[in-house]
Amino acid sequence: MSSSIEQTLNQKLEKIFQRLKLDTKFAFVKNSDRPDLSDFQCNGALALAKPLHKNPREIAGNIAALLEQDTDIAAVSVDGPGFINISLDNGFIARIAGSLAGDERFGCKKVEKPHKIVMDFGGPNVAKALHVGHLRSAVIGESIRRIETFVGNTVISDVHFGDWGTPMGMIIAEIIRQDGSLDKVETYDVGAISAFYKQANARCKEDEAAKETARQITADLQNGNPEYRKAWKYLRDVSVADVKKIYAELGAHFDLWLGESDAHAACGEVIELAKDKGVSEVDDGATIIRLPETNKPMPPVILVKSDGGVGYQVTDIATIKMRVNDLKAEEIIYVVDKRQTLHFEQVFQVVQMLGIAPDVKLSHIGFGTVNGADGKPFKTRDGGVMNLADLINLSKEKVRQSMPKPGEVEGYGEPEIEKLVSEIAFGAIKFQDLKNNIGSGYVFELDDFAKFDGKTGPYIQYAIARINSILRKAQAQNLTEGDVIIENADERNLALKLMQFENVVFRAHEEKEPSIIADYAYTLAQNFSNFYNTCPIMTADEVQISASRLKLARLVRDVLKQLLYLLGIEAPEVMLKA
RNA sequence: GCGCUCUUAGCUCAGCCGGAUAGAGCAACAGCCUUCUAAGCUGUGGGUCGGGCGUUCGAAUCGCCCAGAGCGCGCCA
Predict the structure, then answer these.
(1) Residues A135-148: what's their mean pLDDT?
(2) Quick check: A166 CB within 7 A of strand B?
(3) Domains in chain A, start-ordered, CATH in brackets?
(4) Contact A360/A389 with Cβ under 8 angstroms?
(5) Which pLDDT tens digit goes with each residue over A388-412?
(6) Which end of chain A is more exposed for a tag (fewer CB within 10 A), N or C?
(7) Structure confidence at residue A377 (pLDDT)
(8) Å between A462 CA and B30 C1'?
(9) Is the CB of A260 under 7 A from strand B?
(10) A229: burial class by Cβ within 10 Å (0-12, 13-18, 19+)?
(11) What whole-number distance in Å separates Cα of residue A274 and Cα of residue A354?
């Protein structure tokens, strides 16, 4: 088990701090802000100077003097007000790089206490086509799912279908209005159901009576009306089957395909529990829980609506109860639009009041909206919401245009080309989504999908494809990997960058922030491109150098593939250009 | 009205539990393909970090005030 470079350096520093009787709290390094001066730096002397009433340069000098004796360290200097600059010995870097190359986790540890996490993302609705808003939840959620699994936690993902709210009553009402009954329901496909929903939605916006009818049907459905239940089950099944296809194509994995409706029984328990605890009250015909207001407005949670139906606040609370009781969740993570922040604050508060999930960590990871070039939520030219399937097709078409036609390249017929098109198009879409902080929204530039230059998914995929090409050639020429030798700046930078893998993965894990992985994957690919341009592998002057570079290149390829996997992005074997 | 989030290069964004010269990508300009895939590489220009005050040896980063933008605020989800 190889420990990370930073841990190793921190241990060295801790010993020195102890010898000098300094607080080891400050005995840690970070990647140097001045790569021209050093590989790592320690700012501990600056932080210690004030409490000790000593000159920071003097403290730094004492630390540096001891650090200098370490043969793993090539140079130590004290600069500026008291920064300790540390440069590593090339042999030390080579040794660590070599050990990473032989480790399938590239030096990344696992969490000390693995626990069970239930993740809630996706959030599709019955009868509604997925749109770009669903893209983020699926892409971010899947990435976090993979990161958490990689660091050793057990993750159960649940799509949490929206199948129990007023839209159910709306669509049933609309079918009855048009057909006179529900007899023909089971002849409708997803397109027809979706059309009913659109009409129902338009009608309920205009007509208060239609809305009231929909609400009543929803309540009756929830309370067990057999005719409504039968129709509802069909509508739900059709929608689930449809949505499963697109999630499969997106590469989002769900262990459970439960929905709001599955929490219905538990809703009753929650309502009873609230009554028993004396925290609920009846107001305007609805059963509610009032929440303490501090300095911010905190609307009450509605347990039972005045029409007798349940809303999404209770189903969410009841779902938490189930996840804790049945799934034994120790942590629950929601990947849902940032605009739901207040809702989750309310839900989490009620859960605490009712003691439903003691010692369970509940968190909402809110993401920003996908915007168009005008900064407003992304819309199609005619003003409608962009359908996810359409978006994927547009992106694929752009990729297809940049590639050879099937049959033009030997061994690449229609299926092979289409596989590459899909991998690259999704690489572009997902990386675009994951490269920025997930809390902030981002501008979705459809036109940019034609380029794939710079900080994009295809850039990283391209680096991998080039390495694959080299590995094929090496195999054909019987060139094998050898010990890592560091003899120039580009090899050195690349090896140092590889050593950040564990640190990066753990930061992404702790902050639930895939963009940290995305950013690192990009800079690693960039370092490789530099290396690629200045360090010939197959034609290096000496065989040992070739063998070393081959090992480095293969390691970079494996690390990049792992990073892309953590982002939910495929790594194509080759990249073909028209 | 109350609350939350945000304001960094022409554009899109990193950096934010205080540290050295604020970084990328795109766009612009100038170079690099008889040599492992040019979806690449190198170089140039481009900044009052929204404004002000404060804390500090040191502030894009912490606190307060102001301005502007987005979002949310009981029976939709």
Answers:
(1) 97
(2) yes
(3) 5-88 (3.30.1360.70), 111-367 (3.40.50.620), 391-567 (1.10.730.10)
(4) no
(5) 888 899 889 989 989 999 999 989 9
(6) N
(7) 67
(8) 26
(9) yes
(10) middle
(11) 7
| C-beta of residue A155 within 8 angstroms of C-beta of residue A386 | no
User: What tens digit of pLDDT does each residue of A262-288 get?
Assistant: 999 999 999 999 999 999 999 999 999
Per-residue pLDDT tens digits for A164-194: 999 999 999 999 999 999 999 999 999 999 9
**pTM for the full model?**
0.95
Compute CA distances A146 → A182, A357, A498, whole Å: 43, 25, 20
C-alpha A105/C-alpha A502 separation (Å) is 9
Instruction: Pick the closest to residue A562 from A511, A501, A514 (CA basis).
Output: A501
d(CA A266, CA A496): 53
CA dihedral A358, A364, A365, A368 (to 10 degrees): -170
**Nearest residue to A336 (alpha-carbon basis) of A123, A19, A504, A150:** A123
What are residue A74's phi and psi, to 5 degrees? -85, -35
Residues A536-564 have pLDDT tens digits of 999 999 999 999 999 999 999 999 999 99
Q: Residue A230: beta bridge partners?
A: none
How far, CA to CA in Å, does A496 sit from each of A251, A386, A490? 32, 43, 10
Going by C-alpha positions, the residue among A51, A30, A55 that lies closest to residue A41 is A30
What span, in angstroms and rounded, lies between the C-alpha atoms of A240 and A220? 22
Element (H, E) at A521: helix A514-534
**For A38 and B46, how far is CA from C1' in angstroms?**
28
Residues near A214 by Cβ (< 8 Å), separated by ≥ 6?
A166, A169, A170, A172, A173, A200, A204
Tell me if residue A483 falls in helix, strand or coil. Answer: coil
Average pLDDT over residues A286-312: 90
Helix, coil or strand: residue A79: strand
Q: A481-500, pLDDT tens digit by residue?
A: 999 999 999 999 999 999 99
Per-residue flag: A312 CB under 7 A of strand B: yes
Provide the ipTM.
0.96
Can you give the pLDDT at residue A1? 39
Residue A69: Cβ-neighbour burial (10 angstroms; 0-12, 13-18, 19+): exposed
The yes-or-no verdict on residue A384 having pLDDT over 80 is: no
* Higher pLDDT among residues A267 and A26, named by residue: A267
Query: What is the per-residue pLDDT for A55?
Result: 85
Chain B nucleotides covered by protein, CB below 7 Å: 1-6, 12-15, 19-21, 24-27, 35-42, 57-58, 71-77
Q: A152, A251, A104, A4: which is closest to A559 by C-alpha? A: A104
Length A125 CA → B55 C1' (Å)? 51
Nucleotide nearest to A316 (CA to C1'): B77
- By C-alpha distance, which of A560, A556, A552, A483 is closest to A517? A560
Nucleotide nearest to A301 (CA to C1'): B74
Evaluate if residue A228 carries a pLDDT over 90. yes
A61: which residues sit within 8 A by CB, 6+ positions away?
A78
* Average pLDDT estimate for A136-163: 97
Q: Confidence band (pLDDT; 50, 70, 90) for A386? A: confident
